[in-house]
Amino acid sequence: MLLTKRISFKYEQNNQWVLEDISLTLAAGKVTGLIGANGSGKSTLFMLLLGILKPNTGEVCWDGQPLSYHKEALYQLRQNVSIVFQDPDQQIFYTDIRSDIAFALRNLGMDEEEVLRRVDNALTLVDAQHFADQPIQYLSYGQKKRVAIAGALVLDAPCILLDEPTAGLDPLGRQQIIEILQRIVAEGKQVVISSHDIDLIYQVCDEVSVLHKGRLLTSGDTQQVFLQTELIKQAGLVQPWLVRLHLEKELPLYRRE
Ligand code: ADP
Fold this sequence. Notes:
Keywords: ATP-binding, Cell membrane, Membrane, Nucleotide-binding, Translocase, Transport. With about 260 residues, this protein is α/β, with parallel strands linked by helices. About 40% of the residues lie in helices and about 20% in strands. It has a domain at about 1-80 and about 160-165 and about 190-255: Rossmann fold. A hairpin with a 2-residue loop joins strand 9 (about 205-210) and strand 10.
């Protein structure tokens, strides 16, 4: 389980606190949404959860232990916490899709038969088998996003962070990502999604944390958080479409199964 205990952070070149006193428990087997206006500190928080940045005060903990920031410990953490960046080009290095997804496994010296089995599983999970033999430059943006997700899934890390998984996608591409997210969740992984796509967050997240100017405004059950109209406004956000229909048209509130 990944959590933060009262972390605060500022960048060296900037004397202002970017995050202040953030305590978050990201429960295993749950999907947590991280939302906030631009500049509220979401990406910085992801870098702290990955151990790429170190908090000035407080602790980030994995499995009950505070992170240590030496190379081997971070290498170990990488096998437990994976990230899918917003821009797939930041994550894909090979022109051959299977080689790209296999990279981290081969780097670990894994048996080749196991590498191929895992790559196949990851490709199936993201529905990419039918284009996996094309060169990467022939893929659409949405297909590249799916390859990047497969690259993060292949290590079978119990925790996956996704930064803006639906940004830049058309409605079909977005729907495909939602289905992939649902499959990842069904595997019992801990998933954290940072997104401006409020309707996506509403649809797939059990819990949501709202950042505002580097502070945690609230954290809790997704529906309960989004029903707080004033708080969502204060954070510079809008309520999901289904919550607005409920509040404005008095329709019953859709509940996720
Ligand atoms: P978000 O992801 O919510 O848009 P960020 O974490 O990117 O927020 O940014 C939070 C704040 O930190 C912003 O004020 C941003 O200008 C500042 N910031 C982000 N990256 C850096 C950096 N490398 N150096 C200095 N300030 C930064």
